[in-house]
Amino acid sequence: xxxxxxxxxxxxxxxxxxxxxxxxxxxxxxxxxxxxxxxxxxxxxxxxxxxxxxxxxxxxxxxxxxxxxxxxxxxxxxxxxxxxxxxxxxxxxxxxxxxxxxxxxxxxxxxxxxxxxxxxxxxxxxxxxxxxxxxxxxxxxxxxxxxx
Length: 148
Prior knowledge:
Layout: H1 8-40, H2 43-66, H3 73-96, H4 102-147
Helix pairs in contact: 1-2, 2-4
């Protein structure tokens, strides 16, 4: 069996390699700056870390566009699991850590705001303004019907 450069199996492997390389660079440095920002209660380091994580997300969107693919189900699942872990650890730190001050609270809320902005940015890019509005409106309408 001979593989050609346009073979779907090759394209999937190349996309995965590009995604892993992108996130290895941006997430490793982003998390280092973010953790340094939280431990020193330093807004500049924390926001730089969030900025690098946002750049990693934008890089992932560019990779998806170049390979003309969307997020795979595994990528979506990993993103949701990581978001849940980060939300739970933030809440646990805010409740149980004696060193968790107002600077850390603000830094964490800024990060969750950045994540929400990334979600809205992605929806607008993927579906357009009108499509995003219709998607949200349809979800709200379905939710009201199911609760009745």
